[in-house]
Write a structure and sequence with these properties.
12 strands, 34% helix, five-stranded mixed beta sheet, five-stranded antiparallel beta sheet, alpha+beta, 314 residues, 8 helices
């Protein structure tokens, strides 16, 4: 496990040890030496950097990269024979997101087989994060989204991994993929809903497709009712941590799991905002969705984007 903060502190010490006459240049510390991945420090403006070294003949240019709030991405010469893709942190308000991006790139490149893989993985990871920024910016998850993610992970951790293999369970989770349900298996799908309402428990159905079983062998609706507390129960980061322990020796599955979390707006550097809210299991329901199950699946022509509530007691 890498400690990003230790490396940043070492770079800061390197900077403080410089002769005062040195006004420009880059300081760097290796993050993944076999693929030329470094953390760096710009002496001129004292900004933090992530540096990925590429060959001089690599045809990558500044306009090949996305534009994000709080950072810049550019290609520039880092030695006589090498160029670097340099991600610079401009705003310290984005340090948590920047550190999470660094870790994601590091762990993704650990999975590369060669330099060609590493470069493609690096670029792909940037564009994966571009989708994250488009959807979430630098905001933390809303309370509703935190609860929804907890419910999906509760089913995954406490039930699915006991009845299926670890790979089957994680790969069945749809994460942020454009599926209508949260879990997809060969013999059916599961939609997960989480509620904290005390009486007349209701869940929100986000579209007419969520409870549409057309073409599916089976469709189940899993509802979990929770109480919230600040002292007792289990927090979302604690449940995420349990899944990470299960996956620690399965790098490919861990990367997939992390990608799904990121796609849903969850990054590890934001966990401190989620730790104080704990969930206490109260009750759960599992329904087979078929025949006269209460739902809207065949709206009149011209009607779409349907969102409605469903009373569990019904």
């Amino acid at each position: 496990m890498i400690d990003i903060n230790d490396i940043w502190e070492n770079l800061a010490e390197d900077f403080r040890a410089l002769d005062s006459s040195v006004q420009t240049g880059l300081l760097k510390r290796s993050l993944l030496s076999r693929y030329g991945l470094f953390l760096g420090y710009d002496v001129f403006d004292q900004k933090r950097l992530l540096i990925f070294v590429i060959d001089n003949n690599s045809e990558l240019f500044n306009n090949d990269f996305p534009v994000w709030e709080g950072v810049t991405i550019e290609v520039r010469q880092v030695s006589r024979t090498k160029k670097g893709i340099i991600i610079k942190l401009i705003s310290d308000d984005c340090i948590e997101i920047f550190n999470s991006l660094v870790k994601d790139i590091y762990y993704t490149l650990c999975y590369a087989h060669d330099e060609f893989d590493a470069k493609n993985f690096f670029i792909d990871t940037l564009y994966k994060w571009n989708e994250f920024f488009k959807k979430y910016g630098i905001r933390i998850l809303s309370e509703e989204k935190q609860r929804g993610l907890y419910g999906e992970l509760y089913l995954l951790y406490y039930y699915l991994v006991d009845h299926f293999s670890l790979s089957q369970s994680v790969e069945a989770w749809c994460g942020d993929e454009p599926n209508h349900q949260d879990f997809s298996f060969n013999n059916g799908n599961i939609e997960v809903k989480t509620t904290i309402k005390k009486e007349h428990k209701k869940i929100t159905i986000a579209s007419e497709k969520q409870l549409d079983n057309t073409g599916l062998q089976n469709l189940f609706l899993y509802c979990i009712s929770l109480n919230e507390d600040i002292n007792s129960g289990e927090s979302l980061p604690e449940l995420v941590g349990k899944m990470k322990i299960l996956l620690r020796d399965r790098l490919a599955l861990l990367i997939l799991f992390n990608n799904y979390l990121l796609g849903l707006g969850y990054i590890y550097e934001h966990e401190k905002y989620y730790e104080k809210k704990k969930y206490i299991f109260k009750k759960e329901y599992m329904f087979r969705v078929e025949n006269d199950f209460p739902r809207i699946i065949d709206p009149p022509e011209g009607v779409g984007d349907i969102k409605y509530s469903l009373t569990i007691a019904s």
